[in-house]
Amino acid sequence: MLLNKQEIGALILRLTLGALFFIHGFAKFQGGIENIVGWFSSMGIPGFMAYVIAVIEILGGFALILGLGTRIISSVFVLLMIGAILKVKLAVGLLGNGKMAGYELDLAFIAIALYLGINGSTFYSIDRMLFNSTKETKAV
Predict the structure, then answer these.
(1) For the chain, what is the total number of helices (H) and then of strands (E)?
(2) Confidence label for 119 from pLDDT (cuts 50, 70 and 90)
(3) Which one of 66, 89, 119 terminates a domain?
(4) Could you tell me if 29 and 85 lie in one domain?
(5) Looking at the structure, do residues 45 and 89 belong to the same domain, yes or no?
(6) What is the rounded CA–CA span in Å between residue 44 and residue 21?
(7) What DSSP designation does 92 have?
(8) Which of 14, 79, 80, 83 is the most buried (most CB within 10 A)?
(9) Which domain holds residue 97?
C-alpha cells in the first residue's frame, strides 16, 4: 500500500488527540476525581458528570490511539469541547484571565476532532483491520 500525506497527517492528528484526551481523563482520576465532582457541582453541573467525562476522555482517547471508531469518538470530543467552552471557558475569554486557561486549546482540539470526524483516519487502525478497508491510495 502506498501512503499519501493526508493519511500520515491524519494518523499524527489521531494519535495526538487520542493521547491528549487520554491524559486529560487520567489526570482527573489521578488528581482526585472528587475535586472535579465538587467543581462541577459548584457550576451547576451534576457531579457524576465528572466521572462520565473522565471515562469518555480515557476510553475515547485510547480508542483514537488504536484507531477504533475514529469518526464517532472525534464527534463526541467535538461536543465535549463545545460544552466545556460554553459552560466553563467562555467567561474567561480566548486566552484566559490569569487564574484560568482560556478556550484556545479547546478550539484546537475541536479543529483536530472535526478533521478526524469528517475525514477519518484508517492508517494503522483497528477500523481498517475490522472493516478491511482496502482503498488503494497513491503516493503523493
Answers:
(1) 6, 0
(2) very high
(3) 66
(4) no
(5) no
(6) 23
(7) G
(8) 14
(9) 69-133
